[in-house]
Amino acid sequence: GENVEQHPSTLSVQEGDSAVIKCTYSDSASNYFPWYKQELGKRPQLIIDIRSNVGEKKDQRIAVTLNKTAKHFSLHITETQPEDSAVYFCAAWMDSSYKLIFGSGTRLLVRP
Amino acid sequence: NAGVTQTPKFQVLKTGQSMTLQCAQDMNHNSMYWYRQDPGMGLRLIYYSASEGTTDKGEVPNGYNVSRLNKREFSLRLESAAPSQTSVYFCASSEGTSGSGEQFFGPGTRLTVL
Fold first, then answer.
1. Residue (of A10, A22, A44, A35) closest to A91 by Cα position
2. In terms of Cα–Cα distance, which of B92, B109, B29 is closest to A89?
3. How many CB atoms are closer than 10 A to CB B87?
4. What residue of A is the nearest CA neighbor of B90?
């Protein structure tokens, strides 16, 4: 069935270090992969997204890479700051079933 | 612009009671969605509406009904609440009818069913 697996579930890094979160998806027809950040008690907000015709996308300290053959995509945050501490969700858009399937989330803690 | 708004923010129900969660967006978006968020399980789609006048089931539709009242409003109804429906409910909207674009979320409704 349609599935998005996300790892790790928790990640603790020192301020200034990099953080990497990985996701795999099951449906080879998926063509849109957004990443959402959710601060405690707040709503999810889009931070970056990538479409299947692109292998990498960057926005300042955030980058996403996509490997369609292996069906996995990753979020990279460089020079982490305490305000990056939040839960991050990956998702994959299933065109065949018209659904955005979310991963289970990664709780990122950036230690000052 | 207020974006996506939801009411109420918090609600406590007894098992068997009914209620309607309201959602409205002022961005002239075509698609609207209802998700539930449970600890450790991410966001799961309950129902969606790709355009005014259409609704379809998501991953976890059992126990829920929806109404796309007009382009702005999309409500979620629990006819007979159960403890398993204790969750945080998020409404979202996106511009296109294809759905593969940024979704804007409301602030959420925290529902407890006793």
1. A35
2. B92
3. 21
4. A43
Give Cα separations from B63 to A41, A99, B78, B85 (angstroms).
25, 19, 6, 8
- The secondary structure element, H or E, covering residue A35 is strand A32-38
C-beta separation of A10 from A109 below 8 A? yes
Q: Is the pLDDT of residue A53 over 90?
A: no
Question: Could you tell me if B99 lies within 8 Å of chain A, comparing CB atoms?
Answer: yes
Residue (of A11, A3, A5) closest to A87 by Cα position? A11
pLDDT at A52: 83
Interface contact A98-B48, CB threshold 8 A = yes
Q: For residues B23 and B73, is the Cβ–Cβ distance under 8 A?
A: yes
Q: How confident is the model at residue B101 (pLDDT cuts 50, 70, 90)?
A: confident
Tokens of B113: 């069913």
Cis preceding linkage at B8, omega within 30: yes
For B88, list phi and psi in degrees, rounded to 5.
-105, 125
Given pLDDT bands bounded at 50, 70 and 90, which one contains residue B99? low
3-class SS letters over B5-52: EEECCEEEECCCCCEEEEEEECCCCCEEEEEEECCCCCEEEEEEECCC
CA distance to partner chain A, nearest, from residue B2 (Å): 14
Average pLDDT, chain A: 94
